[in-house]
């Protein structure tokens, strides 16, 4: 599967929070965003199957 680039707009404060949370988890900010997206995608997939 080909990788695609996703652009999002966040404030400097949100960027700082993202960086801090990623460091706390031992990840890069990019890895953290990918993990959160995967969790949300999985959650909504299971919700649509249940409903």
Please tell me about this protein's structure.
It is extended and about 35 Å long. The protein is built from two helices and no strands. The model has no long low-confidence stretch (mean pLDDT 88). Helix 1 crosses helix 2. With 51 residues, the protein is mostly helical. The termini are far apart.
Low-confidence stretches: none
Helix content: over 70%
Query: In angstroms, what separates the terminal alpha carbons?
Result: 29 Å
Radius of gyration (Å): 14 Å
Beta-strand content: under 5%
Q: What is the 3D shape?
A: extended
Q: List the total number of helices.
A: 2
Keywords:
51 residues, mainly alpha, 2 helices
Write the layout of secondary structure elements.
Elements: H1 12-25, H2 29-50
């Amino acid at each position: 599967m080909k990788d695609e680039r996703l652009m999002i707009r966040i404030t400097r404060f949100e960027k700082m929070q993202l960086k801090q949370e990623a460091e706390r988890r031992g990840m890069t900010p990019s890895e953290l965003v990918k993990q959160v997206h995967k969790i949300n995608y999985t959650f909504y997939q299971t919700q649509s199957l249940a409903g």
